[in-house]
Amino acid sequence: MTDCFGIDLDQEYRCLHYHTTLDIVGLKCAFCQTYYACYHCHDQLTEHAFVPTGSAEMFPVICGHCRKLLSRAEYACGHCPYCQSPFNPACHRHKDIYFLKES
C-alpha cells in the first residue's frame, strides 16, 4: 500500500494546514518520490523543498478516501474517478507548486 505523510494527518490525508472535508489527496514530490498531504507538510518534514512532478509521472496524486493512485488528468476532473469523492476546488490555486507547467 502506498503511504502518504503529513502533520496531524487523519485517515483521509487531511493535515494541519488543509483540513476541510474536501482536502483528501496526497501529492507526490518528484525529488523524494513520496506522497504528502501538502507542500507545507513536506517542507516541514524533509530537508528539501517540494519539487513538482512533470507529465512523465504517471500517478502524482493519491485519493485519501479510496487510496487509488490518480493521473494528473484524473485529479483535474475534481473528484476521484474510482470512489467519486470530491476534491477541494480551491486546490487549483496551488497547481504550480505540485505540477510542472507543460508547454
Automatic annotation (TrEMBL):
<dbReference type="InterPro" id="IPR016694">
    <property type="entry name" value="UCP017292"/>
</dbReference>
<dbReference type="Pfam" id="PF05495">
    <property type="entry name" value="zf-CHY"/>
</dbReference>
<keyword id="KW-0479">Metal-binding</keyword>
<keyword id="KW-0862">Zinc</keyword>
<dbReference type="InterPro" id="IPR037274">
    <property type="entry name" value="Znf_CHY_sf"/>
</dbReference>
<keyword id="KW-0863">Zinc-finger</keyword>
<dbReference type="InterPro" id="IPR008913">
    <property type="entry name" value="Znf_CHY"/>
</dbReference>
<feature type="domain" description="CHY-type">
    <location>
        <begin position="8"/>
        <end position="85"/>
    </location>
</feature>
<dbReference type="GO" id="GO:0008270">
    <property type="term" value="F:zinc ion binding"/>
</dbReference>
<protein>
    <recommendedName>
        <fullName>CHY-type domain-containing protein</fullName>
    </recommendedName>
</protein>
